[in-house]
Amino acid sequence: MKSLTKLLTIILAFIIHNSYSQGTIPFKNLSDDLQFVNNKILEIHPEPFNSINQKRYSRLLRKIKHSQKKDSYYKVLINYSKLVSAIGDGHTYIGPKDFNVLPIRSYIFDDGQYVTQALDSLKFLIGSKLIEINNKLITSVNKKLSKIIPHDNKEQLKAKLPSYLVIFEYLKGTSIIGKNDKTVELKFELENGEKIQIELSPIRLKDYFEMFELIPNEFDRFLDKDFHNYFTFAERLPRNDNMYFTSNPGVMYWHKFIKNSLYIQYNFVRNDNIKILDYLIKLDSLIKHVNLKIIIIDVRTNPGGNNSLNKYWVNFFKNIQSNNPNISFYVIIGRHSFSATTDFIASCEKELNAVFVGEPTGGSLNHYGNPKSFSLPNLEMQLSISSFYWVHTYANDIRKSKTPDIRIKNVSFDYFNNIDPFIEEILKNN
């Protein structure tokens, strides 16, 4: 009898999952979930109507409530995503706890969107330009997806788009592909100009993490393979030992002396196995024996962490600057510089005579943060709502991002030829 009960439970779970994924969902369940999302936004977010006015928000809420009586799971996911992303900050988002992903990765360079990683049988696509999905131009596909992606600014949107582009559920919900489609057609332009079309089937999120070794081994033991960490790591360029900034993705911070320059990559605002203070003490003892002219601090891939740790770095650099006024400081920033990293950047702007190089940051200098996470009562979705507004510069600073003093073009040719134009620009002038 127990075996039969267990079997029926498994079958029922499958039926429920399948009906949620393919068909409609009981309206009462959806009504409860929508009310839950709305209540949490209004209760927790410091200023929910900063980016969308209350009237428009209420209209959107009513529209979703009315339409979800007949909507598929995919449409519900899209509508909830539109509502939450309308709040207008990168820490406030909603997404499925599990989903399916096309086994390919891409990146938006200044000259287009190019494949950076693919499953073994499609490695020949690496370096090719992605031009269409299901006979729709990539620009129009990205425009559709932009409406559901939470972001602080356009740079963060550019960082996130390639990761949303391969999520099967979002492609279905936005009607980029049909709701019953099992595969997706992608069109590429190869390096020789030849255009080819490939049909891809999605894989489970767990398999995607493993296939692309998305979470570095150093973090694998304590990070969940979930929606949040998918975006933290999928947005980055793949590991490449031929360039400094892609060579140590699993190390919180590390350094290298390059002639009379010191390169430091600050990857996460977190303590590593060697705590920041201990690391900086050791680094300080090394610096004393080198005739340094330049210090390069690279935070272009840093998604944030614990704000309170930044003061150790800033005080360390201030001390060096006061004792060695001839040393030039450069800070490399980019679309992945987000959250607590913008606190570090704001401190460098205020307290160090540093030159900023690269792309505008993906995070605002002053921003909403400290998100609270919740599971929806019925749908297998995770909700994250900002609970605090951080002022890292001054109260009425309306800059959406930190713009570099030296803006560098980020083109595909450089990346695929192992050229880092950000560092080269700094070193060529010193």
Look at the helices and sheets and give the structural class: alpha+beta
Strand order in the largest sheet: 10-11-12-13-14-19
Number of β-strand runs: 19
Overall residue-averaged pLDDT value: 92
Radius of gyration: 23 Å
Distance between the amino and carboxyl termini: 78 Å
Largest sheet: 6 strands, mixed
Q: How much β-strand is present in the residues?
A: 15-25%
What is the total domain count? 3
* CATH level 1 name of the largest domain: Alpha Beta
Helix content: 25-40%
Shape field: globular
CATH architecture of the largest domain: Alpha-Beta Complex
Unreliable residue stretches: 1-23
Task: Give keywords.
single chain; 430 residues; alpha+beta; Pdz3 Domain; 2-enoyl-CoA Hydratase, Chain A, domain 1; 3 domains; six-stranded mixed beta sheet; four-stranded antiparallel beta sheet; 15 helices; disordered N terminus
What can you tell me about this protein's structure?
By secondary structure, the protein is of the alpha+beta class. The chain has three domains: 2-85, no CATH class; 100-234, PDZ domain (Pdz3 Domain, Roll); 244-364 and 399-428, 2-enoyl-CoA Hydratase, Chain A, domain 1, CATH 3.90.226. The protein is built from 15 helices and 19 strands. The strands form six sheets. Strands 10-11-12-13-14-19 form a six-stranded mixed β-sheet, sandwiched between helices. Strands 6-5-7-8 form a four-stranded antiparallel β-sheet. It starts with a helix and ends with a helix. 42% of the residues are buried. Residues 1-23 have low confidence and may be disordered.
